[in-house]
Amino acid sequence: MSSPTVCAEPVMGVEKPSRLSLANMVKLSVLGVVSLALLYAVWSLYLAGEPLFAVLVMAVLVGFALIYGNRRFYTARFVFPAVVTVGLFIAFPVIYTSYVGFTNYSASNLLSFHRVNDIHLSQVTVDKSSERPFFLLPVEGGYRLVLRGADGDLISDPFVADGQPQQLPMQASGELAAPAEAFLPARDMVRLRGELGAITALLPDGQSLTTSGIRTMAHVQPVFEELEDGRLRNRLDGGILVADHSVGFYRDEAGNQVAPGWRVNVGLDNFKHILFSEGIRGPMLEIFIWTVAFALLSVLFTFGVGVLLAVILQWEHLRFRGLYRILLILPYAVPGFISILVFRGLFNQNFGEINMILEAVFGIRPEWFTNPTLARAMTIIVNTWLGYPYMMLLAMGYLQSVPGDHAKAAALEGASPVRSFFSITLPQILPPFAPMLISAFAFNFNNLVLILLLTRGLPDIPGTLIPAGSTDLLASFTYRISFMDSGQNFGLAGAIATLIFFIVGAMAYANFVALRRAVAAKGK
């Protein structure tokens, strides 16, 4: 006998809320909030005069709205954050840096042409003979302007300081029966300096005065006026300034450049300076060779020391291995910048402990910071100290995967421990080490922090047109040109950074191919 089937009928007038509808509402709410936030960022960047960044954020906004607002792009939702991150923090900086390398962007060419034009037109000259101190007398509903002068005081009708342009006719005040305490204090006038700048005082003789200081007014007139053809004429001496867009400066009648300048495209000029100017090409070639040597030696020494210590710590008959392991990992636990500054003190030529020990034992005091060879040796020593713990930790893990039977079989065949290591152990741990060695090379190729904190690129290379030091890497060399040189030549630094990008990429790829072939050859 089959049991009766009970059918639940919906109760009239009672409807369960739809979970799908609620989820859609939440999704649309989040989508709307994020979109509005991005749209506000776009508008703020545009108002701040950064249209390029505004376009980038707008592209992110459009992609976000399309991908997360349409189910057809469901799978792209998991990739979109990574694509945006790569685009904003990797691709865009590289592209923008390369773009800067084709411009004259520097400390003297920071602004746009329109901004430079406005700066010249905003220059004013003050007629000192017309300068008069002024005061504000608070009255009901506003203030009255009082001008002091040798021929008597002048006073205006009441006005409101609201920042709008105003012309105040001045009239003789006679005997102004107001004590000094009745005038507005200086600190309050400072707060109103913006509003007071919009006021023009009209004297009875027809002269007009505007603010020339916090407490003074005078006849102020612009220095330059713009002619119909775009040239600027000096009202004082009649001189003419002509915009030269090939160099990004105004030129006077004698051909001299008049600062400030503006950004213009200079094509390959920066790259030509790097490749063909002897004062730049010579030191840059020396720095490039040292950079490659520094990166290779740093990888070689950190790898060699790290693997050697890992092999020693793997020796089962070594007592206190745990203590040694902790002590050898300590340099990795200390922040790098602290260790670098400590070594800077240890290597001090006059008071450093290293020179004190060397003088006491061998009677020598090496010039670590003034001799180019010793300075470079010091940077490699310090970098080896900073980098070997990482290699040691990796090697300790990789050595665990090497079968012990191989070493035992080699020992039975009469192979020495050294031969067994280079013939059996090293070929087995080198393949997983290869990507780490390539990344270590790329990192040391651009190890800016070590150079800036330890040597600051010194000692300088003599006879250069730009700041260049014997211990400078290409990264620190570019940093000094961009931010430490008085000229702050961002365009030249951008060109150098572009070359570094392609050089490092090519060398990293070449190292990867060479290591892969070497590992494949050893595996046969």
Automatic annotation (TrEMBL):
GO terms for cellular component: maltose transport complex. One of its GO terms (molecular function) is ABC-type maltose transporter activity. It is a multi-pass membrane protein. GO terms for biological process: maltodextrin transmembrane transport. It is found in: Cell inner membrane; Cell membrane. Keywords: Cell inner membrane, Cell membrane, Membrane, Sugar transport, Transmembrane, Transmembrane helix, Transport. Residues 288-511 form the ABC transmembrane type-1 domain. CDD domains: TM_PBP2. The chain crosses the membrane at residues 25-46, 52-69, 78-102, 287-311, 323-347, 377-399, 429-454, 490-515. The complex is composed of two ATP-binding proteins (MalK), two transmembrane proteins (MalG and MalF) and a solute-binding protein (MalE). Belongs to the binding-protein-dependent transport system permease family. MalFG subfamily. Part of the ABC transporter complex MalEFGK involved in maltose/maltodextrin import. Probably responsible for the translocation of the substrate across the membrane. This is Maltose/maltodextrin transport system permease protein. It comes from Zobellella taiwanensis.
